[in-house]
Amino acid sequence: MHNRLKDLDDMTLYEDEVVGPELIGTVEYEKDGHHSFHGGIIPTTHRLFIKLKRTEEIETHAVEYKDITGITTENLLLVGNIIHIWIGNEIVISMKSVSDGKLDKFLDFIYRYRAKRLKLDEEISVSHEENAV
């Protein structure tokens, strides 16, 4: 089951989409009245995937980088590292008890590719606007 939280074999990826370093742990995400799941957060070069274990099923949700308004981390003495993913003005996804080494690799990857993706989306939007004039 743990390996199923790490892979994206059940998803159709874009031709040039590359999977980055995943985080596995306790995901706080509101879904059908439940708030805490064993799960994974997996970045790719195009988007972020959230995998949640519900009973014996694994649910996968994709989040586009353009929808993410912020990523913050905190370190609490009894809990450890926590990562928060913001959409709009609220924290929509959190993961707690993340190891330092994994978190650093994850953040490096997501910051790099989210910035590239946002820049590409902006350039595409500008070129569409210029063509419409």
From TrEMBL:
<dbReference type="Pfam" id="PF14470">
    <property type="entry name" value="bPH_3"/>
</dbReference>
<feature type="domain" description="YokE-like PH">
    <location>
        <begin position="32"/>
        <end position="111"/>
    </location>
</feature>
<dbReference type="InterPro" id="IPR039519">
    <property type="entry name" value="YokE-like_PH"/>
</dbReference>
<protein>
    <recommendedName>
        <fullName>YokE-like PH domain-containing protein</fullName>
    </recommendedName>
</protein>
